[in-house]
Fold this sequence. Notes:
Layout: H1 12-22, H2 29-40, H3 47-78, H4 83-108, H5 116-166, H6 170-181
Helix pairs in contact: 1-2, 2-3, 4-5, 5-6
Amino acid sequence: MGQKSAVDRLPEKLRNKLLEMLHNPAVTQAEIADAINDEAGEPLVSRSSVNRYAQKMKKFAEKNRQAKEVADAYLEKYGADSRNKLGKVVNEQIRLAAFDLMSEIEEIKDSPEFNALGITEILYKVSRSLRELEQAEKLNAERAENIRKATLAEAAEIVEQEGKTAGASDAFIDKIKRKLLGM
């Protein structure tokens, strides 16, 4: 895989200053490069490396904004109680991202920057993440089922109490409870 960008190799203090300056629209990228290099006492970043980094950060921020908009729209349309469904959507997006990564690996495997050990590590992490997603989905489904069963059991108790108060027969109450509990 490729080496870290000049900005990523900066000491944390200088990288934080660079990020802060990038957020100020009054400061140009050339001024940022000059300020970072002046503070470092040597040329560590070029104007083009600052520009590439700014573009990368802009793209990352845009993707995050879009993801937040999709999640907000989903929750607005289906309600906050549908978080489990939203989790499934997110899990599916992560799976798609993993498949995209696999296709990118296919494209770069013949390039001189290809590092089989690095790719192996990435693939291991992706497969582990996918396995953890599957486990989380299973756990969420089990929790949802337990909540559903507990809610139905509570409803059956209410039916029994209210039915007796209203004078319904035990057979009628039992029939409603069985229907409610799916028996």
